[in-house]
Amino acid sequence: MNKETLLQVHERVKPYIHRTPVLTSELINDMVQAQVYFKCENFQKMGAFKMRGAANAILSLSNEKRSKGVVTHSSGNFAQALSLAAKKMGVKAYIVMPKNAPQVKKEAVKTYEGEIIECDSNPIAREEMAANVQKETGATFIHPSNDDNVIYGQGTAAMELLEDYPELDYIFSPVGGGGLIAGTALAAAFFSSHCKVIGGEPKNADDAYRSLQSGKIEFNEQVNTIADGLRTFLGDRNFPIIKKYVERIIRVEEEEIIEAMKLIWERMKIVIEPSSAVPFAALLKNKEDYKNKKIGIIVSGGNVDVGNLPF
Amino acid sequence: MNKETLLQVHERVKPYIHRTPVLTSELINDMVQAQVYFKCENFQKMGAFKMRGAANAILSLSNEKRSKGVVTHSSGNFAQALSLAAKKMGVKAYIVMPKNAPQVKKEAVKTYEGEIIECDSNPIAREEMAANVQKETGATFIHPSNDDNVIYGQGTAAMELLEDYPELDYIFSPVGGGGLIAGTALAAAFFSSHCKVIGGEPKNADDAYRSLQSGKIEFNEQVNTIADGLRTFLGDRNFPIIKKYVERIIRVEEEEIIEAMKLIWERMKIVIEPSSAVPFAALLKNKEDYKNKKIGIIVSGGNVDVGNLPF
């Protein structure tokens, strides 16, 4: 993996993604005493950066493999991303989802013509069901975050951000399954001589923070956070990248996430999901450490029930 | 007034405004069977297009007049716009506002260092108080919508939109006091050979619709609409422009405004105020008439209490 690979990945996914805009706010700059550049992946197709990784993962498959389809387990944005990317490429997508997943998430997948296969609501049932689908259909399993091609695809967001603002000192990214921050870290390493990557993580799902401390992958006993996109765990493909390239992970409380989310809605006038507020909450909490710096923030997505907000 | 004047106005206000982005959504295009371009004035400084007109109105004054300040009556976006524009130009702004205006609106004006002068909550008290302030301070009165320089300033939004998308067939604008739609109509007349302007207006505050029917300015008996920015009345400066250049005004019901607002939040991932949803609601309601056309929509602002939504 090097700069050239990431450039090729970007060329390959370009027809399937938006080059999302970067927004700024004087009020927010004044508030944190730094220059902040928000990379708006909430404006990405299907509403989240996951479209990048999903598109790249399918494009990495041979035509023969594509003809048999792809399968993943997700009830979140990756389910929608894989369904939409597959639809656009004429590939069949099987989405393994817990029976009790919210109806609105099932409907979103159906809109993009993903085929939902229900399973019990636990990690073992989910993986068994995905294995079953693989066996029966010959579909290729694509993990939502622990997959090299997914990681590279997600890295194209930070790559675009650094193309637009090469002088960035830091990029803040949320940390969930680890795909986005690993891709972001690779992009920063390849496309900047000095830009460092910082993770924002909910205190209530701080496996990445603890993993960086201990040097091995730690797990969450529970994931009681409003940032539902960040309840997932690190994997063996993305953790080594995070360990090597990510400078720091900052943990934030639930109220800090909600406050940061509301601030972005009110000041930036954009709809973001709770997970997307986490890196900004991390910056707000530690703004003294980043005074007068140029800071990019990956706004990961905007898929939220606007009729049911935490404020 | 001609094309050159509007170009000069734009040059003059440029340092004080953002050139706002234009966003699109495939889902919305599919839904209305047309290509829709949203000019995002919710991303404008202080969160609404009003910044354009306010900046131009102050810039049109002599240095002597500027030294004595400006005064307006508004409890909405124009109060904030005039305060911020005046602050940036080192001019004093007096804002006449009803005693019972929401605290959040008063706070916003104070943030921008506008001086609030309270009055009773009726049009006569408001105008008397503004006249008082003029007499006592020598400040120049600037009407929020019925003022040529305000109208020209507001027209720069549509001018930018037509610079970016010269092939537009229609621009939809909300109709409140009439400043925005009059400016939009002038910009379309000067910068396009074929682009027509359509107004969206709440049925519950349909003075412009009825005025176009009767050919003279009609008034609203009541203004019971969620689109609080559109409760104001037409004036003698903007109505003749509207009469001459606006092709049609479409009225929408309250539920249609709320539905359109929610759709834009969910699909476009942007925070818009109810007034901004009105032109899109008008398009949705009459989409058969605009099939396969290229349509610009002025998204007028994003100042809304995100903790108190109608959905």
Automatic annotation (TrEMBL), chains A, B:
All residue ranges annotated as the Tryptophan synthase beta chain-like PALP domain in the record: 14-301
Q: Which UniProt keywords apply?
A: Pyridoxal phosphate
Keyword set includes Coiled coil: no
The cofactors it requires, by name, are:
pyridoxal 5'-phosphate
Question: What is this protein called in UniProt?
Answer: Pyridoxal-phosphate dependent enzyme
